[in-house]
Amino acid sequence: MNIVSYRLPTTTPNPSKHNDCGWVAIDDGVEVGWITMTFKPDNSIRFEDAFVHPDHRGKGIYRKLWDTRWEYVTANFKGRKIHAYCKPPSVNLYKEKEFTFVENVVLVEKIA
Ligand SMILES: CC(C)(COP(=O)(O)OP(=O)(O)OC[C@H]1O[C@@H](n2cnc3c(N)ncnc32)[C@H](O)[C@@H]1OP(=O)(O)O)[C@@H](O)C(=O)NCCC(=O)NCCS
Question: Could you report the per-residue pLDDT of 89-102, keeping only the tens digit for each?
């Protein structure tokens, strides 16, 4: 499996044009998962969504994507504050990585 990055601000010609970037997991030429992050106006970094195709879950792909993102951030943005809104399937990994609990948030919705 290969991890391929996209739109990283350290590798794109004009990073000021966008604030989101990420990594895609490719297995045998097929995209099997992805992970993203964004740069916030207050100079912090937010770790955003992750997704692994249901047929490929439980094999450590999320962990590999997560570690790739973490290595990139610590290599290029040491000292920046990082935050993330976690869902139940992702909160365990954040706890394992020693992120600090801040607050619970509430999901709301409405049909337009
Ligand atoms: C959550 C998701 C990305 C995990 O992908 P995965 O490749 O199967 O995860 P991994 O095999 O790399 O597991 C890494 C760690 O994530 C956590 N984890 C994975 N699936 C989990 C689940 N269903 N519930 C709770 N924790 C889970 C565990 O801590 C696991 O560590 P362990 O294997 O040592 O127990 C995948 O189930 C998914 O895409 N779910 C739907 C979208 C989603 O919920 N995204 C996450 C929040 S944005």
Answer: 999 999 999 999 99
Total number of domains constituting the chain: 1
Q: Within a domain: residue 73?
A: yes
Low-confidence ranges of the chain (pLDDT < 70): none
Which of 90, 94, 98, 107 to mutate to test ligand 1, by most ligand atoms within 8 A of the CB atom? 90
Q: What is the CATH number of the domain that holds 11?
A: 3.40.630.30
What is residue 13's predicted lDDT score, i.e. its pLDDT? 85
Q: Which residues pair with 33 in a beta bridge?
A: 25, 52
